[in-house]
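Write out this protein's structure.
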Amino acid sequence: PGCAVGVSERGSVVYTRGYGMANLEYRIQIKPETIFESGSVAKQFTSAAIALLASEGKLSRQDPVRKYVPELPDFGTPITIQHFLNHTSGLRSQWPMLSLAGRPPGLAVHTVDEILELVSQYKELNFKPGDEYLYNNTGFTLLGLIVQRVSGKSLNDFTQERLFKPLGMRHTQWRDDFTKVVPDRATAYRAVQGGQFRTNMSLTNVIGNGGLLTTVGDLLIWNENLDRPRVGGQAMVDEMQKRGRLNDGFENEYAQGLTVTDYRGVREVSHGGSTAGYQTFLARWPDERLSVAVLCNTTGTNPGAYAHQVADLLLAGTLKPASEPKPVDVPAGALEQVAGLYRER
């Protein structure tokens, strides 16, 4: 197993290549056209769908989520669509909760309806909405549901009609039926001891938070649309790249399905993803008009590091020198205070 990589500069694709095998049993090699599951890279497409509906006045980011998802309990303080987009809702994340319930990813088949039933039974939040940032898949699953309920179309149908087909992203679709046969899709694997691999596919029909099937070529088309919008307009891009703010005014690096940060002195807009054995990373350095997409089909890979290695080559002379981390002495007593057993919820 391995990865596919795609690179574009100033709107032109300059490099695409596959490395490794898309399927070990049939000895099929990875090609630039090989389809992978994108993991959380998909969140930006759910965000874009929300942006399109907001631009048409069909919803507002400040609307309480319960306006569209009444199954969400009333926690005494409103959770807004904006909270979901910025990961500041305080809602507990679906995968750890399902694992605690004995239905962890990879061992049970989940649906959006099951996530909705799970959320309807929540008794409390992790924190008051807007007080903290905590990455949360549940929010984006419910955002996908909001797109469906507001538009009257499935998330796949809506995004095919409004995003993928107009842009020519002909290899892209949501994995809303994990049993569907998808030509040219890479099998996902997990690395085990001794250099061996085991299949590690996505056994879920949950989408919105992830679940997008795509290629490096289609992702480069999408990034070009974010640099030079043909679909959605500059207003959509600006909203998606607007960093979130906490109630105390602190600004997060996480925007709306995208992380807006700095890489060695150059502005970077990116997102990574991981679902089962698929590991992914999509990045833009918009001021330099550089985009890199890396899609891998096995655990043990680091697509984010690979993408930055490509950026190091192509932005040489522009990037600031890499800073070396400096060790800091921490008193033993301070470490003892935080030692213990932790459980995510």
